[in-house]
Amino acid sequence: MKKDWQIISLGGSLVCPEDPDFNFLKSFRDFVLRWVKKGKKFVIFVGGGKVCRKYQKVAKEFGKKDPKILDEIGISATKLNATLVKSIFGKISFPEVLTDPTKKVKTNKKILIFGGYKPGWSTDFDAVLMAKTLNQKLVLNLSNIDFVYDKDPNKFKDAKPIRKISFSELKKIIGGKWIPGGNFPLDPVALKLAEKEKIKVVVLNGRNFENLEKFMINEDFLGTEILP
Fold it and tell me: Residue 53 pairs with which residues in a beta bridge?
């Protein structure tokens, strides 16, 4: 695989905030197909989002605290969301939802869709691992926030957006512990691998397609660059 692949970690809460979001999916499909026509290829890892957390919440209420079980629920949610995303691309995408980011896929398809793989591995981690597998140095993380903030903007009105941040600085903000279903701008296990492999991660609001286009054509964009 050459360096014309764009690796994306697509937040599950974009795909299904409460119910599957038709308008977002249509806009996302149009965006991807427009760039495919320009020669770009996409590897898209789809997260579990609220679907994952809702199911995990019920499991916890029944006393299920084993992280492996909670992760298995999360993986199932990612595959459900990934199957939906794959369906919107039809025959242009690889015919199956893939899972293993350690293997190169021999295909002439220009869109590959991945769900989760192993307990303890988030789709963010999987995306960074695929970047390592393909010898790429950039992962695009699409979420429902405009920036990474210095603290939770939902809890603190004085939270400040960050345009550029190092791996070590972000680690101080999010900590180093993996929590099944955790809501991180970039989860700790993915951060650790990205730091080790010197893979840049860019966090953007996936609903702002005008801004996303600016990123793709190397214009000034709104978002956070997590740098080695």
Answer: none
Q: Quick count: other Cβ atoms within 10 Å of Cβ 23? A: 8
Bridge partners (DSSP) of residue 93 are 111
134: DSSP letter: T
Q: Three-state DSSP class for 28? A: helix
Matching residue, tokens 């099944």:
180
Query: What fold does the segment set 5-227 form as a domain?
Result: Carbamate kinase (3.40.1160)
pLDDT digits (tens, 9 = 90+) for 117-157: 999 889 999 999 999 999 999 999 999 989 998 887 878 88
- pTM for the full predicted model: 0.93
Residue-wise pLDDT for 93-120, tens only, equals: 999 999 999 999 999 999 999 999 999 8
In terms of DSSP H, where are the helices of 90-226? 123-133, 167-174, 188-197, 209-216
Q: Number of helices (H) and strands (E), helices first, in the chain?
A: 8, 9
Sign of the CA dihedral with 43 first, then 103, 94, and 183 last: negative
